[in-house]
Specification:
The complex is a heterodimer of chains A (269) and B (217). Chain A has helices at 16-29, 46-50, 60-64, 70-73, 100-111, 127-134, 147-162, 177-181, 188-195, 207-215, 228-238, 251-268; strands at 3-8, 34-38, 75-77, 84-87, 116-120, 138-143, 167-175, 198-204. Chain A is an alpha/beta fold. Chain A has one domain (3-268): Rossmann fold (3-Layer(aba) Sandwich). In chain B, the strands form three sheets. A six-stranded mixed sheet of chain B has the order 5-7-9-11-14-15, with no helix packed on it. A five-stranded mixed sheet of chain B has the order 6-8-10-12-13, with no helix packed on it. In chain B, helix 1 packs parallel to helix 3 (64-78). Classes of the chains: A alpha/beta (269), B alpha/beta (217). Chains A and B meet through helix 7 of A and loops of B.
């Protein structure tokens, strides 16, 4: 069954687009037919993170305006066994140029072709955000371990609940375990307790994620990289192939996770 | 002039509904009084450790610095936590209060699930929230507010003159709180996040009272 999943956060800059690209790549590599839809009209980023900027001819607003068909706007990424496609956002339009009905129709068409439709939601809670969440079956809320991000996420979860989105899950991005142990950072357990939704995964802070995005080659494509496994774990949990992680993100689990990362680092050297 | 010896009755224990209240007679040298209190607590540790402890001045409220010092010293020396209990004039409290005028019945507003940032509840009667109240959320009620979860948002109960209104919650860390226009003056204690708390109006002040959970009989 096809599922449209919106990645949202309220606050900007928490890593929605990067996370979506990496999880999309992981899902596609696991064999799911996946499409990534950039709904951040006017601030087109997803294609840059994936390094396929030069292949974009049509965008989502072009489909809505009848300039092209959905098939014409789909760009395949051949690095992931051709299971991954993307529809870019427009750089020159405004959010209001994509009507609610047109967007809903595009999602319906994509549902006939793909297993997973991952929607990259714009920051904020205005028209662009409301449009992006309206057609979603499931939402993934991304937070950084900081108070303002958590507060915005809480606001967003309230709106998602009002939109009757039943399945809302949490990813904590840019988590720094060392700082948390020194009590300088809010722990994953506290975040889960505060927001009251299920934890889907945790991504530690790592500068190589940023560097890979700049290169246009998401870390999920680098099978020997230590961060690689985090995205695949989330993709598997998302697809129901793996159980959700421990909700209190118990100490032993965190430590084993970190030992894994450190071990991989040593192996790569 | 501070007296050199501390009389036995300068530190007294009093059984109250919520636990044991330690009363300090602040007319003596304050540091000596606290040392004496610590001695007394240590002597009765077994009995006291079974109850929630509160501290208060015998004749008037303790000032925040004095209170903080007393709590810290007692915590360090005896490993026991004492909670502040606001002072109230007991003579006045014993006077019978005028019976409140009967208000027309207004059904309470019931809400399930968490109240999240940006969300509001408004009622002309009471509000019952079956879930946590998150920071950034607000409740406005002419009656009382009962929260079956933690209170971390803004609560305005007893709007605008209903001093009979109460706020009851499981875990107390409000951003703002007022009953009948009377606001909370001090920052709530972090320890109250793990307590049942009842807030009511006493003598034009908000009285924050931590409660212990009682087992079923």
């Amino acid at each position: 069954m096809s599922e449209a999943i919106v990645f949202t956060s309220g606050k900007g800059g928490v890593g929605k687009t990067t996370l979506l690209a990496n999880i999309g790549v992981a899902l596609a590599t696991l064999g799911f037919n996946t499409v990534l839809l950039d709904a951040d009209i006017g601030l087109r980023n997803l294609d840059i993170v994936l390094g396929i900027e030069n292949k974009i001819r049509f965008n989502v607003v072009d489909i809505a305006h009848g300039i092209c068909t959905v098939d014409q706007a789909l760009v395949k990424d051949h690095r992931s066994n051709a299971n991954l496609s993307i529809i870019a956002a427009s750089q020159s339009h405004l959010k209001e140029d994509l009507s609610k009905e047109a967007f809903r129709q595009i999602i319906l068409q994509l549902k006939n072709k793909f297993d997973y439709i991952l929607i990259d939601c714009p920051a904020g809670i205005e028209y662009g955000f409301r449009n992006a969440i309206r057609s979603a079956d499931r939402a993934i809320v991304i937070v950084n371990p900081e108070v303002s991000s958590i507060r915005d996420a809480d606001r967003v979860i309230g709106i998602l609940e009002l939109e009757k989105i039943k399945k809302i899950q949490l990813i904590v991005n840019r988590y720094q375990h060392d700082l948390c142990q020194k009590m300088d950072m809010i722990s994953v357990k506290d975040i889960v307790e505060l927001l009251g939704i299920k934890l889907l995964g945790v991504i530690p802070e790592d500068v190589s994620i940023l560097l890979s995005s700049n290169e246009g080659k998401p870390i999920s494509y680098r099978s020997n990289h230590p961060m690689h496994g985090f995205f695949y774990d989330i993709a598997k949990s998302l697809a129901g192939q793996k159980e959700l992680p421990s909700q209190d993100f118990a100490k032993s689990k965190t430590e084993s996770l970190w030992k894994k990362v450190k071990r991989s680092f040593t192996m790569n050297r | 002039m501070p007296k050199s010896t501390i009389p036995e009755q300068a530190v007294t224990f009093k059984g109250i509904e919520q636990g044991i209240l330690i009363l300090l007679d602040t007319s003596h040298d304050y540091e000596k009084i606290i040392k004496f209190a610590i001695q007394k607590i240590k002597a009765n540790k077994k009995f006291l450790s079974e109850n929630t402890l509160f501290i208060r001045g015998a004749a008037g409220p303790l000032d925040p610095d004095e209170l903080g010092m007393a709590r810290k010293l007692i915590r360090d020396k005896t490993k026991m936590e004492v909670l502040p209990l606001p002072w109230k004039n007991e003579k006045q409290a014993e006077e019978p209060e005028k019976p409140a005028e009967a208000l027309p019945y207004i059904p309470p507003l019931l809400a399930s699930n968490a109240l999240r940032a940006g969300q509001k509840l408004r009622s002309d009667g009471d509000v019952l929230l079956f879930g946590n109240m998150h920071p950034g959320s607000q409740i406005f009620a002419k009656g009382s507010v009962y929260i079956f979860g933690h209170l971390r948002g803004e609560v305005y109960a007893g709007l605008e003159t209903n001093k009979q209104a109460m706020v009851i919650c499981q875990g107390f860390a409000p951003l703002q709180l007022s009953i009948a226009g009377i606001s909370l003056q001090t920052n709530p204690d972090d320890a109250l996040l793990k307590h049942y708390v009842v807030v009511s109006v006493q003598n034009q002040e908000l009285l924050v009272t931590p409660q212990n959970e009682h087992g079923h009989e």
